[in-house]
Amino acid sequence: MKLVGKSLARDGPGSVKLLPEVDDDLWDAYNLIAAGDSVEAVTVRKITRSGGRDSERVKLTLEVAVESTDYDKDGSVLRVRGKNLSKNEHVQIGQYHTLEIELRRPFLLRKEAWDWPALDTIRKSCDETAANADLAVLLMQEDLAHLFLVGRSVTATRARVEVPIPRKHGSGAVAAYDTALKDFFQRVLAAFVHHVDFGLVQCVVIASPGFTKDQFRDYMLLEATRRGELRAITEHKARFVLAPAPSGYPHSLKDVLAAPSVMSLIKDMRAAQEVPALQEFYAMIAKDSARACYGPKHVEVAHERLAIQTLLLTDTWFRNPDVAARRKCVDLAESVKKVGGNVRVFSSMHVSGNQLEQLTGIAAVLRFPMPDLDDIEM
After folding, report:
1. Do 232 and 130 meet the contact criterion of CB atoms below 8 Å apart?
2. Which CATH architecture best describes the domain 270-375?
3. Which of 260, 251, 27 has its CA nearest to residue 124?
4. What is the predicted pLDDT for the residue at 266?
5. β-bridge mates for residue 108, sequence order
6. SS3 string of 248-301?
7. Where is the eRF1/Pelota-like N-terminal domain (predicted)?
8. CA torsion, points 285, 291, 297, 300, in degrees to nearest 10?
9. What would the mean pLDDT of 191-198 be, rounded to a whole number?
10. CA–CA separation, 317 vs 345, rounded Å?
11. Could you give the maximum distance between any two Cα atoms of the chain, in Å?
């Protein structure tokens, strides 16, 4: 995200002008913009003329008082709905309008109070020195492949390829198998070429059970030497890494990202910081369950006793439309930090964030055992 301008102070009113440049920036904007804020941006509105017979689309600059937001990761657009605050000949003050915030289109965000999570999001999103560690993961098995693009905050499924592949038993079966496998690899390669931009992607992980990953890599490199339009694959073949995976289904992505060989490559990514923290939580449950807890009530009681060593929570807690509930969550995170604890905020668009969401979205690793938490209703 590019920071075009700002005028704000912590816990006070102010504004920032931001320019989203990649999909992760739109996700950060989604986490920044909350009900009660106002957003100003260039937009298009359908205007009816001549007694309602004719209409045209007019480009306007409007500011809306935010009531709701919706992030479409597949379409790379963030929709912000609210009542118009700007004087305009086409849209009355108080009329509802939906702004569409897209890549490379600036917007101005105003808040009455810039709290810690909002300022931290801007700091991380606008850090020009941060490593560009975008990752592509091709998860495969014979007959099925999924292509993921893993960014700083967003994991997006870009392609799914499925081709029935017959068994090798029977006369002529080997030839049929080879033909089907080649067709499968051709389709996977076409999807890969369409979606992976080596100007952004710094590492490609090809993962599968067995030798499917090795077979596909060899096929892809051979095709790249034969076809001039695939020259980029040959030029960047050092960026390809092979890794084991339980299957070609999406749920295996978490195992691939947790593999030591992959973790060492993506150590600067936010996802790589989230995975070990979640692994520590699960390891503590297995080793000493009294030193781990989850659920807002249990975490709150643990903090009252200054027991939290690491607080884990998803960013959905900071998007709560209830201002009081959001403020309570912000205060909890800041309080844990003040007493020497660690706070890990997980993106709900990453696989690790999805795992944490299944445990209410908030959990903690404790400094000392608290077996009595089991007696408290969640």
Report:
1. no
2. 2-Layer Sandwich (3.30)
3. 27
4. 65
5. 17, 40
6. CCHHHHHHHHHCHHHHCCCCCCHHHHHHHHHHHHHHHHHHCHHHEEECHHHHHH
7. 1-127
8. -140
9. 93
10. 9
11. 77
Provide the CATH topology of domain 2-126.
SH3 type barrels. (2.30.30)
What type of residue sits at position 350?
A: H
Amino acid 90 reads H
Q: pLDDT (tens digit, 9 = 90+) per residue, 117-158?
A: 899 889 888 876 454 447 899 999 999 999 998 877 778 889
Contact between residue 311 and residue 298 where contact means Cβ atoms under 8 Å apart: no
Better-predicted residue by pLDDT, 267 or 234: 234
pLDDT the model gives residue 252: 95
Domain ranges of the chain: 2-126, 134-264, 270-375
CB 21 within 8 A of CB 10: no
- pLDDT, one tens digit per residue, over 328-364 is 999 999 999 999 999 999 888 888 888 999 999 999 9
DSSP of 1-42, one letter per residue? -EEEEEE--BTS-EEEEEE--SHHHHHHHHHH--TT-EEEEE
Residue with tokens 């905050």, as numbered in its chain:
153
Give CATH for domain 134-264: 3.30.420.60
Q: Per the structure block, which two tokens stand in for 45? A: 């509105």
Phi, psi for residue 137 in degrees, rounded to 5? -120, 120
pLDDT at residue 50 tops 70: no
Are 266 and 330 in contact, with CB atoms under 8 Å apart? no
Report pTM: 0.68
